[in-house]
Batch of 2 targets.
Target 1
Amino acid sequence: MSYGCKLEDLLDVLHDSAPAKAEAVDLRRRRIEHGLLSVGLKIHCLGKARQFLSLVERLGGASRVLEMNAYRHSRASLCLVLPPVGNARAAILLLECIERFTGAALFGDPKIQIQVCSPGRLNARRSALLGIGFYLASDTLRRYACGDLETTASNGRRYKRGQRLVIYDAGGAFDRDFEWWEGSGNGKDRLVRLRLPFKNGRSDLLAGSGSKLDIQNVNLLATLLIHAEYQGYWRTLGKRFEEDMESLLDRHLLTGLITVPWVRTDDAEGPDDTEFLSALQELVAYAFEESLRVQKQSPILFGQRNRSSQGILHEIQSLLKKYRTEIVRQSLLAEGDRI
Amino acid sequence: MTRAHQPGSQPIDIPEVIPNPAVAPQEKPVPREPPPKEPVKVPQTVPGRYQSVSAT
């Protein structure tokens, strides 16, 4: 990945229209919160992207900011690659600064597609959990049409990433200078490395028309799964999360969804997206049906029951809330022990 | 919005995006009016006993 601009240059430009927020991003840009992963963002603009022209111009023009990166959504006129920051809050603030500068909304606009980038490549099974978790926990339930997930890297000569919610990086620049919380042998002590353990490699999620909650959820999910995969400090929590998630899918007879290729690995053969798109349609149909069922339930009868009987959408919310709380609690406890 | 239509039946509209009923919508902060400024208390006339008297 080539970052279209340096964060300092971007913040300098954005400071004119959003000084307080730009300064807040600058302060938090390298700060890792509770051992969660750093966050990168790409903005694919499906419209004419007029709102970004002034920003691109201020950053050095299209040839410097945009054309060096050939990757984008297949229907996008522009893909702005933002440099990664240390935490989801800073990433959201950065988008808010851009909103202020351009005067146009970035969240919830169907013409703006947000891609959330997390360091480290997840295996196929964990990529499935990332995609499913993102979808069910989002504040909007989306239907996908053919081509909605198509990028310039879907069927290129060099990279065949297919049409997927989760896609790997395509090499290129990778900012390793973020803290990584490593687990010790006893599983309790925390070793803070100053650099990420990956030389490159990312698992990105095409959130589509995304929200702030989506960015926070993807950051949480990716942290749990990446730590489980690469023996990070949160590996025990991450593995427990996987078990909980698989058990949740099992209760809803959706375990089969995990076995299809949610990410196209480099060794995958053939450009066939059918299996994944069928699985995605099954998930979408289940979620939409579930949302209708939830809306039809009488609050008087239904409100008294426990959350787990309220269906998959409530269950996934509870699960993420539980793990978010647990990460914060354990990281604060660890901080307390150090003092 | 997608419109599904079969001959002989009423067309139906299928939404492409719906809110997730399990997620409480985030309330937007209600902008509050700034509190009224306190009037600046400047005495219009300075009492005579505080007036400086030239020593000349």
Target 2
Amino acid sequence: MKVAYWPGCVSRGFTPELHGSMAKVAPLLEIELIELDRAACCGAGVIAEHNQELADTLNARTFALAQQTDGELMMNICSTCQGAQSECQQRLDANTEYRDEINANLSDEGLRYEKGLTNKNFLWLLVEEIGLDALKQKVKRPLSNLRVGPFYGCYIVRPTTRLGIDEAHPRDQYLHWVIEALGGTVIDYAGVYKCCGFPIITMNKEASLAQTGRHLGDALDAQADCLVVPCPLCHLNLDLQQPGAAKVVGRELGMPVLHLPQLVGLALGLSPKDLGMSKHIVRPTSVIDWSSSVVAGAAA
Amino acid sequence: MSQFTLRIRRYDPRSGDGAYWDEHRVDMPETQSVLDAILKIKDDADGSIGIRCSCQQAICGSCGVRINGKPGLACNTHLDEAAQRRHVTSPSDPEEGRGESVIDVEPMGNMPVIRDLIVDMDGVHWKKIQRVTPWLINKEPVPEREYIVPHENMVDVTQSMACIQCGACVSDCLSMEIDPLFIGPAALAKAYRFVGDPRDAQPRERLTDLSEDQHGIYDCTHCFNCIEACPKGVDPMSQIMRLRRIAGSDYDIEDRNNGYRHEHAFVKNIRKNGLLHESDLLADSYGGKFHPRAVPELIGSLPVGVTAFTRGKMTPKTALLHPHKAPKEVKQMFDKIEGRQRRNELNLYVSGFEDAPDEGAGKEPAGREPGRPGTAQDGSSTADAAAGSERA
């Protein structure tokens, strides 16, 4: 399938391995990515907090650019983008007069957002468009014996009504399902739906790192081999800031944190190096004994 | 009639024993409430179960508890809805567990347990409410007759006035879980109720106080748990974001916690680059690379930075020179919107949704929030002129 692809900022900034691994994984899943390279930052909630019209216009512009492509829908790889864009889209779709005013801001560029865009995070697309059965069939190297803790973060699971989470679309379960479809073992621990603390890192660093450290420690106690996240901002706190978080909570952590496309890529046969895992602060290759887990699965 | 198993968390701190689960089965219509079931168990089996309740109509806010992991009122949660509420379904079988009718009832979080399902609201929740000066400070001189207040302003603050002080949002606040001193969602929603009220004489003082407190408006992590928890649709987090917007944009209150600087640095960063340049944002959030406040922070971040370099997460080039530049249309868009005399906002609580016309509470002009102080009207905004000028 062809999608209008919004990688976000951080996947091309401090977590380049996320954008890189998505580009490697997409062809294996027969996803054609049409990158929205003229689109700008979603505002990450911060611009909306500063000026709602500005955030809504920035995202309406991204949506309009997506609608100009021949993609079936728009796909993002960042929960924060998903949450911030869903918030703006909810306002844009709710009120014609307001939408017209926002579109007027785009008229100089000849752009216009038409109500009703479908914008899905890669996680949702995997389950709802590709399907778990099709995904299972593509697995070349089941993640046997790999104990994976899902870390959803906030923006992709709350608020449930805005994000379309209901009985028919239990999107707050999808990470669990994908881990299992790839052959891994889901680890339940206290932090599954909690906040990584990143949004307050410049305001209250101690509290921010205490949140991250606690979740990593809980996953460690539950004997997870690694965590998987659909959000690069969570990754910044959970991985890049992990040494600092370890100091704040006063314990050794050493918990590898994988981006969702990396976990998928591993099972589809790509190597940790292909997937940019050597760029992580806590290198998954040095912590997980791949010879007895993933690689053993490949031999089977 | 259906059968439900209620597992009630029991705890008496005076007993010296730990908490334990107490299991009871009830046969009741599935549309009866969790509170109905608990009161029946108290009547029929064990009168010693501790729960606070009064009106049984979701008005008094007494019976806040956690039901199958989610906070809410026991009196307005149906038994069938509670039983279907899942912690996590089995990944292999999403339907598994749906047929079971086990309902776990626990005391709310973030507050000490007095006994069983009763938590110490005085020690946490009410103290925080008192912290935000929860009353109107009259403007002087007080008018001879009633205050005349624009309709939109009052509809706007009715959202936070809908709070029944049940504590459900406090129970699940993830910031408070780590930082018990955080003022928290209920109290900050209450603070907005007065900051957003044009009759109040001291919105600037209130906002300065809440910005300067290290555990104030900039201590919220945007986790949305309070929005999910609230049984009355108060959306506490949205009220906190309004407080930040008014503090940062209308009053230019520069706090000591980098909230204001971070927000303004972020906006400047995107205007310039289109995409976020993280290295610049980090420095600018502390006032700029060479600011005395930034220097210790940047030195503190050095080990992280060095590892990021050695891992190839960034290169000196990408750290110093951002590869992206915002298209000129984006810059113009920023300048045009930031230059408006009055912010153009849509408040869905007031306007409702076109596709669901009954949900709207407000009238024309639909859903526009009170704008920034000033008197000039921008042509594209329909915000009520009187709303902003009240505070000018």
